[in-house]
Structure formats: structure tokens, C-alpha cells
Amino acid sequence: MADGPVTDAERDRVAELHAEGKSRAQIARELGRSPNTIGRIAAALGLSWDRTGTAEATRARQVDLAARRAELARLLLEDAFRIRGRFFTEYTEQRAVGSPDGVEVVTIVHSEPPAAELRNLVTSVAVVVDKHLALVKVDVDSTGKAAVDAWLADMLGGAAGSAAEQAGPPV
Fold it and tell me: Does residue 57 share a domain with residue 40?
């Protein structure tokens, strides 16, 4: 990085490179200055960069991440149901039992899990449901609509809002 005060030649070069469509980072690399320095020079010259592409890319990324969170929330809810299904299923345990001939392994089948195992299963379901709800909550705006519902309502001029509200909160 260049040290010292910015020269008039550097200011002129920033203006030229900006006019060529170079980004702030590209100009900084070319001139050996920090991006912050280039930003200050550009601001002093009244220059700015078009950020519509960045804004559109950011919105697209937010939509992609919301879709991934929705899929993860769906999978977590499936996990909770799968774990809950184990509440009332047969539970097999094996115990080592001493006998005059040595140690023998005995298999015991219970009609449902013992209390300690059931408590662990209930705790697991509670944790998974909490995580599911936390993911769903991230994508609910201040009006209580999921982000996708708000987007759809906006696209349809508000017509979708009533159907989304009738359906209730996302789970």
C-alpha cells in the first residue's frame, strides 16, 4: 500500500478508472491504496458506484437462504415426529447377568422405553421443535407474515395477504 498524501495524479487516475467502470477494489489494487482511501477520493470528486447489481444479488441471496432455512425447518419438524414415534415402541436392552457358568447376556424387551430413555426422547423432541420454531421465526416479518407471504402479497398487490393470514402462522 502506498503511504503518504494522495497526489493530484492519483485523484485524476481514480476519476479515469472510475469512468472506465472499474470497481473501488480494482482501483485500490491498481493504485496500491486501500479501498477506503479510494472511497474518500471518489467522494471528494463526487463519484459513486452503481450498486443495483449488489442490491439485487443481496436480495437473491436472502431469498436463497430463506428457502434453505424453510427446508431445514421442514426437516427438523420431520425429525421431531420421527423421534416422537419412538415414545411408544418396543425397547430392547441387553444386560450382562452373572451365572455359575460365567457371564451371560440376556435380552429384555419392554413394551415402551424406560422412563429415563423416554425423558431423553421428550427432551430431544422439545429441542428439535424449538430449533424449528426459531428458523420459522427468522423469516416472519413484523406484521406476522412469513417473508415469502409478504413477497407474494406485494407481487399480487395485496391479494395474497388474506389467504396467508387465514392459513395462520407458519409451523
Answer: no
pLDDT of residue 52: 81
- Tally Cβ neighbours within 10 Å of residue 119: 11
**What pLDDT, on a 0 to 100 scale, did the predictor assign at position 139?**
82
Q: To which residue does cell 479510494 refer?
A: 38
Q: What are phi and psi of 10, to 5 degrees?
A: -65, -40
Q: How far apart (Å, rounded) are the C-alpha atoms in residues 154 and 136?
A: 20
Average pLDDT for the chain: 85
| Domain carrying residue 40 | 8-44
Residues 77 and 101 grouped into a single domain: yes
Place of cell 477520493: 41
pTM over 0.85: no
CA angle 45, 48, 53 (to 5 degrees): 165
- Closest alpha carbon to 31 in 17, 19, 42, 45: 17
Q: Is residue 17 one of the residues assigned to a domain? A: yes
Task: Give the strand pairing for 91-99 and 102-110.
Answer: antiparallel
The answer on 71 and 37 residing in a single domain is no
pLDDT above 70 for 170: no
- From 4, 51, 11, select the one nearest 27 (Cα to Cα): 11
Is 164 within a domain? Answer: no
Question: Which run of H or of E encompasses 133?
Answer: helix 115-138
